[in-house]
Specification:
Layout lengths: L21 H10 L2 H27 L4 H19 L7 H18 L1 H6 L9 H6 L9 H8 L3 H12 L5 H7 L3 H25 L4 H5 L1 H10 L5 H9 L1 H13 L3 H9 L4 H7 L13 H5 L4 H12 L3 E3 L13 E3 L12 E4 L33 E3 L7 E3 L5 E4 L9 E4 L9 E3 L5 E3 L5 E8 L2 E6 L13 E3 L5 E3 L5 E5 L8 E5 L8 E3 L10 E3 L8 E4 L5
Antiparallel strand pairs: 1-2, 3-17, 3-18, 4-17, 5-16, 6-7, 8-9, 10-11, 12-13, 14-15
Helix pairs in contact: 1-2, 1-3, 2-3, 2-4, 3-4, 7-10, 7-15, 8-9, 8-10, 8-15, 9-10, 10-14, 12-14, 13-14, 14-18, 15-16
Length: 542
């Protein structure tokens, strides 16, 4: 009996022989030989097909033949450019960006969308078509820095930090030995950091922002406290807060920063899908472990430590007072980086309320018709207290279409006292309906269209489908992808509730009933624009 061959190790990646880099495989594409070019294209596709096809399914919010079509189209475009002289180094992130742009372009073409109905998913092509930008604005510095790096540095950073692969993988793709690749990786990290600092200075909207360039960078990098005047500047400048948040990710959570800056759409879902990240555990190596891949909990802890050094004081109008003056540690939230800032409503007062809280869930100039939530403090109550949820753009309330059963659609309706418009925000993040037992909003069951589903038990696998993170602006971000937000599909009664890429517009902001006096100390305010009585606070453990 012949001895069976041992299984092939996963590294270096399949496709080509030992020592064949992506660039060497691409050489025949430029030589014009059809046979050799066909072989090279096949080997390059074998190396990169799986992640490209998986990201296509993420962008489309559906798998199957259309995801294969998008992946094939992306390879065709990128390999054509390689044949015309572009380098094949760092081909992975270029393929992924091309996948994203292909889905966006196809969904924008009515003729294509008609013959490919899968492009119409709200969390996929239809959502891309509606969004203004596929990458978050608070990742501008990181995007500029990454794109300014040499292709070799981009490849090393992407495969180690985002894909969470060992250094042998990008070394093989680049045709380098691991010792040289490791040294080049450290250099790439340093150059990326320098690029972020330089971009902050070059793009600064004011001389004051440029002045604080190094005063912001050095303490964050060394782990020290920010100077008081730097903290005061950050409290007033969203541009520098975003810069501080990005710099804070360089040594803790670089993979998150890179994938959000380069891909934007579906970035967190792609990051979580990487095989190298599954089952990763913390080690005493700390920073080295995070650089080797890290886990979501470690990335969140590192981000919290950085952002905790960026306090944003609550400015109160002259003459106002409160027995609980609190500070919140706020970073700039992006396509997946959440600011968990809530406000606790209080009943102290004075002043005109014009500058009570820095963030507001109410649209300026809101007028309140009868039977709609009042314009006082908007809050999502804790258990045993219910409220209506009114969309800030449509001025209509969240309601259940038909009988309150699992699978029922959720729509906008004229605000009323109906039990189907009553909701409770649980401590675990579930939005529970008062109209039916054990029924919660489910944002994942129907490819981005929000429906009524059964609530999840503690620790259940599908828990993220029915749980949401609440921001200080009144946005509800689904736990399965915090780059998305609950939004209305229209402004008329009967419009569906969907999840779209978070864009900070009023269509993604939700207002609630002002709490009754008996509930004022048991509800969580997300707006606080009703005057100086509102005070921001951080919800512990949420």
């Amino acid at each position: 009996m012949p001895t069976p061959h041992p299984p092939r190790p996963p590294y270096p990646p399949p496709g080509g022989g030992a020592g064949e880099s992506d660039e060497s495989l691409a050489a025949p594409l430029r030589a014009g030989s059809d046979i050799e070019a066909s072989r090279s294209a096949a080997l390059l596709m074998a190396r990169h097909w799986r992640p490209v096809q998986e990201y296509a399914a993420i962008c489309l919010a559906v798998s199957g033949p259309i995801a294969h079509m998008v992946a094939a189209a992306a390879f065709h475009q990128v390999l054509d450019r390689v044949a015309l002289g572009e380098t094949a180094d760092a081909i992975r992130p270029r393929l992924l960006v091309t996948v994203r742009d292909t889905v966006a372009n196809w969904s924008a073409e009515d003729r294509i969308a008609e013959v490919l109905p899968d492009l119409g998913k709200p969390a996929g092509g239809r959502g891309m078509r509606a969004t203004k930008s596929l990458t978050p604005e608070n990742r501008t510095l990181a995007e500029r820095s990454f794109l300014g790096l040499p292709a070799l540095a981009q490849s090393l950073l992407w495969h180690v930090e985002v894909e969470a692969e060992p250094i042998t993988v990008p070394a093989g793709l680049l045709g380098m030995d691991t010792t040289t690749a490791s040294a080049a990786l450290e250099d790439a990290r340093e150059k990326f950091h320098e690029g972020c600092v330089r971009a902050h200075r070059d793009l600064a909207p004011s001389q004051e922002c440029r002045y604080y360039n190094r005063l912001l960078d050095v303490p964050i990098r060394r782990g020290g406290a920010l100077l008081p005047d730097v903290q005061e500047h950050l409290a007033q400048c969203p541009y520098c807060r975003a810069a501080a948040e990005q710099l804070g990710h360089v040594d803790g959570g670089l993979g998150v920063l890179l994938v959000e800056a380069v891909l934007g759409w579906g970035a967190r879902r792609y990051l979580d899908s990487r095989p190298g990240r599954k089952g990763a555990q913390e080690t005493p190596g700390g920073r080295a472990a995070r650089r080797a891949g890290g886990g979501g909990r470690r990335r969140a802890a590192a981000r919290t430590r950085i952002l905790a050094r960026i306090p944003v004081p609550v400015r109160r109008p002259p003459g106002s007072w409160s027995s609980k003056t609190l500070l919140t540690s706020v970073g700039v939230a992006g396509a997946g980086l959440l600011t968990s800032v809530l406000a606790v409503s209080a009943l102290s007062g004075g002043g005109d309320g014009g500058d009570a809280v820095a963030t507001s869930g109410l649209v300026p100039g809101d007028s309140e018709p009868e039977a709609t939530p009042t314009s006082g403090t908007a809050g999502l109550p804790v258990a045993d207290h219910t409220t209506r949820l009114r969309n800030a753009a449509a001025q209509l309330c969240l309601d259940i279409n038909g009988d309150p059963t699992a699978g029922a659609s959720v729509v906008l309706a004229v605000c009323s006292s109906a039990s189907t418009q009553q909701w409770t925000y649980e401590s675990d993040g579930e939005l529970r309906s008062a109209a039916g037992k054990n029924l919660c909003l489910d944002s994942h069951a129907d490819a981005g269209v929000v429906i009524l589903g059964t609530c999840a038990e503690a620790g259940a696998e599908r828990g993220k489908d029915v749980r949401y993170d609440l921001t200080g602006q009144g946005e509800l971000l689904p736990s399965w992808d915090e780059t998305l937000a609950l939004a209305t599909g229209g402004v008329d009664p009967g419009s569906d509730i969907v999840v779209k890429v978070r864009d900070h517009t009023s269509a993604q902001r939700w207002l609630t009933d002002a709490p009754a006096p008996s509930q004022s100390h048991g509800s969580l305010s997300i707006a606080g624009s009703g005057g100086p009585s509102a005070q921001p606070a951080e919800l512990a453990g949420h």
